[in-house]
Write a structure and sequence with these properties.
Number of strands: 21
Oligomer: single chain
Helix content: 25-40%
CATH superfamily of the domain at 254-447: P-loop containing nucleotide triphosphate hydrolases
Strand content: 15-25%
Number of helices: 22
CATH class of the domain at 254-447: Alpha Beta
Distance between the termini: 47 Å
Strand order of the largest sheet: 11-12-10-13-14-9-15
CATH topology of the domain at 254-447: Rossmann fold
Largest sheet: 7 strands, parallel
CATH architecture of the domain at 254-447: 3-Layer(aba) Sandwich
Structural class: alpha/beta
Low-confidence stretches: 630-643
Mean pLDDT: 82
Amino acid sequence: MSVTTLSNNDTLQKLDGVGPKTLESLSVLGINKLSDLILYLPSFLIDKTALSNLDNIDSGEKVLLIGLVKKIFRTKGYRANLIAEVDIGQGIIQIRFIHKIVIFSHLRVGDKIRFSGILYKKNNLREIIHPEVEKIKKGDTLELVTPYYQTKKLISQYKFRKLIKLAFQALDTNESLIDVFDSNFLAKLNIPNYTNAIKYCHFPDNNNYDTAQKNFLISRQRFILEELFAYKLMLNKKLNSLPRNYHLKINIDKEEEMKIINNLPFTLTKSQSKSLEDIKINLKSNRLMKRLLQGDVGSGKTLVAAFACYYIVRSGHQAAVLVPTEILCDQHYTTFTSFFSSLNIKISILKNNLKSAEKNLVLDNLLSGQTDIVIGTHSLLHNCNKFKSLGLVVIDEQHKFGVKQREIIVKADSQTKLQPHQLFLSATPIPRSLSLVLYQGLDYSIMDDMPKNRKPIETCLINEQNYEQLYEKILSIIKNKGQVYWVCPCINFTENLEAEYVTGVYEKLLKVFSKYKIGCLHGRQSDYENKKSIDSFMNHELDILVCTTMIEVGVDAPNALGIVIENAERFGLSQLHQLRGRVGRGYQNSFCFLIHSNKLNEVSLERLNVLKNSQNGFVIAEEDLRLRGSGEYLGYKQSGTNHDFALATAQDAILYHNLIIESEKELKFFDNDKINILLERWNKQNEKNIEL
């Protein structure tokens, strides 16, 4: 059926040539309405302005050729191939189609075709497998610059380009090609308007590839920016719908607060003071606080979290601190107890190794309100309904908890209907959280200054063949009265895993450093054995502690000046940064040695060099975001491809973050009509819950 004008929301069935099969294929690509098709932008432009000269082409290179079909035949067998011999004037080229032969069954002997693909040479045979093929009819004007679409081979490039043309011709331009950006903003960023950008992407300049490519790239960036704006506006809408905590406003005794600050054995850093002010502003508002506190190991995040708990407790509510390990649980309990020693604030600890009677007493005190702050491991997740009035949840080492785990403890209380404020602590935010920060889904505070005289950690990449060099450096550290962590990815030897293991490295180091004391720490030892190993290391009774990643959080040994990480390429960047943070806690020079395979590929080497060249957790997290992907912003996946976006990537999130935030304040085009256009255009009207 031919239709003169269509709108953005019209179904694709109204286009000529869109039958049930094509409709199904388009749906797989996420194309369900006309605007989806128009905004399904090409990935790149193909330069067809010059044909290839086979004399200058090696096997494995891409070619563009024109020729006459001389012969067509099918091979025999279960998976028949369609083969065509094409005379290009410089000889015969064989083109082969291994499957989906029906797509190319229109080819006939005598057809003039233009085709492109990878040329393979073997003896006298020159062959292209699965080329892109265009028939050339008499009087045809050839496209010299062609857009290429990621169609997953569900639809041919030719047919997809034809559908794009039909859709654009049928659009009611007055209704469907409205630009949400005003002329001043377009001029400021030097980007084309909506209509021109569509044309530059789908219908590039046919005469000059360089001009077409320039216009294409800037147009694609314009649409990426528009999609990011749409996401930001949707996120704002969702955030504004979050519960209002009218009964959770804090009441701060400024005199008491200053007395606590003045009695500290150190002066707060500028970023600690700024973070406290950020938190107080959140807590004084009637909106639920969801704030990420990012700071490198040793930047003082724990103290800021303790103050946040203090504000909540002094306002008549309780606070819960969720940590990933019992080691960290004990450490925080000691820190918090010391911090609140002069105040009438009752602190409890909740972890798996408590006896039943001890655990029940803690839970009873939480329910009655006798406990103000509880610090616990995953046990808290199973007892999150045992509070009298939970006002704040602090999640330390946020990257250690899954979305669903965090979701359990922050749900609104069934009796009070209050949802607690949330404060996340991390040295390296996971990609998902970083993405949400970039779009203001999470408020955030960055603690980017360290205590005075704290020296950066020297990070070294060491090839697995250079152990002798490493041993010399370790010996130097020990002789300088320092201690060393030696981290392995597994406990025992595993046949299918070519990696160093704790028991093997321990035996080896006993021989290499026979004059020194070496201990072990891993998950298959008893709690008693592990506690003994940790205590011995903390008391400087051990020189080297061979361990798994159990020491990643919660172990704070001021004399630890070196950490060796075996098979470093097997760890994520965030985890490597966390492990590195186990050293450099004092004011002496400290070292991190990343042992890597001799067969390390370029990507893995690039990752390790990021860690070597940066001490900044946010920079490392950004690189992790680029390499791993962002995950689902509104779902549960914490890494990988973000399916909420059609065009935007992690790099775009980082690149345009400041622009989006600044523009949101300055631009006047965000009226309700244009907001709705943006949300509808980029399919952001859904009502998913935000789960941070």
